[in-house]
Amino acid sequence: MVKQIVKDVLFLGQKSEPATRNDLQVGRDLQDTLSANRGRCVGMAANMIGVKKNIIIVNMGIIDVVMFNPVIVSKSGLYEAEEGCLSLNGVRKTNRYREIEVEYLDFSWKKQRLKLIDWPAQIAQHEIDHLSGKII
Questions:
Q1: Architecture of domain 9-131
Q2: pTM of the full structure
């Protein structure tokens, strides 16, 4: 189901809780909501649709990947970037890593490990920041 985008920085600034198997629908809602906002958005965190759970979605070009309880396990290549956010107006500077590895659970609740480089890595870092209440 397509959800409304949360713009309340007090809500967005709160830390999210671990996702459980009961939160699989939130992953599907993120898929629908990202699709509905495709022209102006490349990733989302669950708190952007009003759910304080550790769930993100990242556009990888031809597919969108939903990650439950994502954790960055390695990172390299620090650089400065400018980012916008569907929940905020304007762009802001932030630091990102060019390469990261993320561990997460998929829809089957199986652990996955994914190496991301450049743009997908930047998107994933932005969305993972949302989970800890960090807003660029």
A1: Alpha-Beta Complex (3.90)
A2: 0.95
